[in-house]
Amino acid sequence: MNEKKTTTSSDKSILVMDGPAIRRALRRIAHEIIERNPDLSQIVLAGIPSRGNEIARRIADTISAIEKVSVPVGTIDVAMHRDDVGTRTELPVVRASTLPLPLEKRTVIIIDDVLFTGRTVRAAMDAITSFGRPARIQLAVLIDRGHRELPIRADYVGKNLPTAPDEKVRLRLGEEESDEDVWLVKE
């Protein structure tokens, strides 16, 4: 898909992925997870709210369609594990974490929409270890935009998108293909 530029009065935006491109990226990630994890009965997908949950569900559905195996999907809330909790002006919204237990001997694949500094992923790893000690933790993201502050790297990436620090990545996931896209926004 070619990137499409649009300009509005308040910002300049570039369409990075449309609905079909998002679906292809998630299908590719599902295939890569299958290839790297020979025993799919031992994996758990853990989505980071809110878009990570939807992406995890879609990847699990794709794996199930390909391999005819059910992959459990959980939610891992990072709100109380973030390193900026005490410095924020607002209290974080805390959601329930739900993971299929026990985690021992399993591979937990953290799923998020956009990987940026790595701090959310670090918080997710802390949250997961409060539930148990998985055999491995892997990371899958739809967009990797760079600018890491921590030594964290995704195992599965839908699209690498180099960005400037002042740019934002906006992701919409809807029920209709026309309601899904990824935009690079300079504000």
Explain this structure.
34% of the residues are buried. The protein is built from three helices and nine strands, in the order ββαβαββαββββ. The protein has 187 residues and is an alpha/beta fold. It has a five-stranded parallel beta sheet, with helices on both faces. A four-stranded antiparallel beta sheet has the order 1-2-9-8. Helix 1 packs across helix 2 (51-67). The chain has one domain: Rossmann fold (3-Layer(aba) Sandwich), CATH 3.40.50. Residues 5-9 have low confidence and may be disordered. The two termini are 24 Å apart. Helices cover 25% and strands 29% of the residues.
Question: What is the element layout, followed by pairings?
Answer:
Blueprint: E1 4-7, E2 12-18, H1 19-36, E3 43-47, H2 51-67, E4 73-75, E5 107-115, H3 119-129, E6 136-144, E7 156-160, E8 167-172, E9 181-186
Parallel strand pairs: 3-4, 3-5, 5-6, 6-7
Antiparallel strand pairs: 1-2, 2-9, 8-9
Helix pairs in contact: 1-2
Which keywords apply here?
five-stranded parallel sheet, four-stranded antiparallel sheet, Rossmann fold, 187 residues, 25% helix, 3 helices
How would you classify the helix and strand content by structural class? alpha/beta
What's the CATH class label? Answer: Alpha Beta
Order of helices and strands: EEHEHEEHEEEE
Mean of residue pLDDT values:
88
CATH fold group:
Rossmann fold
In CATH terms, what is the architecture? Answer: 3-Layer(aba) Sandwich
Oligomer: single chain
Helix content: 10-25%
Number of domains: 1
pLDDT < 50 stretches = 5-9
Major β-sheet annotation: 5 strands, parallel
Instruction: Indicate the proportion of strand residues.
Output: 25-35%
How are the strands of the largest sheet arranged? 4-3-5-6-7
End-to-end gap: 24 Å
Gross morphology: globular
